[in-house]
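Anyone opening a protein record will find just a pair of labelled lines. A complete record is shown below as an example.
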Amino acid sequence: MAVGHGDTSTGVDNSTELLETEVDYVENSACTDYSSSGVPDSQLCMTGMLDSGTGLLNATCNGDSGGPLYWTEGSGKQVGITSYGPGTDTGCGDPNITATSVFTEVVDYAGWITNVKNGLVTATYTTSESDREYYRENGSLPNAVTDILGSGDGGGSVPLWPLLVMLGMAIFRKK
């Protein structure tokens, strides 16, 4: 189950509610829409059922990045963080794409998460309100922040560092 506040289809956001969608696992070796050899083991590929009303597959979309992916069978633990999917040229939920959603696999960062929770990791940069405001107005980070953290150019995907910062903030808030 993927959860998020993102678009309900490419370029369309017609809900203010937190949404969820059921997705199914696709083996990484079959996840070749983003790389001919599939995606790395640190990622999980998913696809959804076809919605006969829209003709689209259940999927994550723009604005869902950073949201959770849960296994609904068993423990219901978070196993992924929404990372990317088809670009805007293809569109969210495109039935011609094998894997409509790709997630960062949380277990690969379990040691780091544990260290953050135990206070063993010190932030290398703390985002200020002015940084957030700059990002909201410009859609990018101030040059000084980019110089510290790097550009994070992920070929249209959301850079991993903001996802990890958000995860760290969520863990800190739960404490």
Observations:
- Helices lie at 110-117, 129-138, 143-149, 160-174.
